[in-house]
Amino acid sequence: MDFSSDNSYGATPDMLHALAHANHGTAASYGDDEFTSRLRARMSAFFGREVAVFPMLTGTAANALALATLCPPHGAIFCHAESHIAVDECGASEFFTHGAKLVTLAGASGKLSPETIEGALADFQRGVHGPKPCVISITQASESGTVYRPAEIAALSSLARRRKLKLHMDGARLFNALAHLQCPAADITWKAGVDALSFGATKNGALAAEAVVFFDPEAAADFEYRRKKAGHLLSKMRFVSAQWEAMLEGDRWKVAAGHANAMAEKLAQGLRGAKDAEIACPVEANAVFVRLPDAKVAKLRKAGARFYDWGPSHAGRTLIRLVCSFATTEADIGRFLDIAAR
To answer: In the prediction, which pLDDT does 123 show?
Structure first.
């Protein structure tokens, strides 16, 4: 019963097959291989327009280097207070931007609103005495397991354009958001005004496959130099690109993300009927946030369930996060719910 993270599980058979296929023979290095060349065309087809795509190994590097391309050292990046770039990346964005400031903001269910950002921008009226507002960064799906609708992203983009800001999306779980919304990828990325996307496949069954996507290829003019200088230009790039090819081919991502989302909804439905359980956020992707009595949390852990506490205990109850993956089984959910219902 491992609900700690979708990173806890391995790779799908399709990913392992793609890696084995890429291992045959020889290939040009540093991204000049046929797999990476095909990926550029495949990714452009996926988004419905020409894009610049840069395969990466980690989401942290993808976020930090994308933001470094969009934001100068004297700039400010507006993000949710619980966002991965603010909480879980060890200051990577500040490091790779050479000092840009992360401005963390509150927002219900893990999402930012134009009103919140407008309020924050009011504090940046001191000219050169404060950092220059440059980027809004949002997470799709959010750290609370919620999903931005196309209109919500478009509203943030409209604000960004009025204030001459760029819009970045951390899409570590973009596939889960798409599986929930059942819309084309374009509708929640470039058509809604996103400038750059940190795109993740690892959480959906890849071994290690991330990417940075720029929807205006000219905006990526110096990204390849940043990637090389940061030590993230892989000599055997084909092994990352091959995983992306396999993930996008035949919409395999829908199977993985759809299963993870369905398991999360099944888990949430069961918890809604459990005594003393309170679902804290809408369940729209593959994560469930639920408050349980501390004694029940301890009982679940003693029975072998793995999950993260999402903050300290309060009034005898703890908010926990339960994440489902492409490999989560109904048997594990049933066992978890059985213990929670006792």
So the answer is: 85
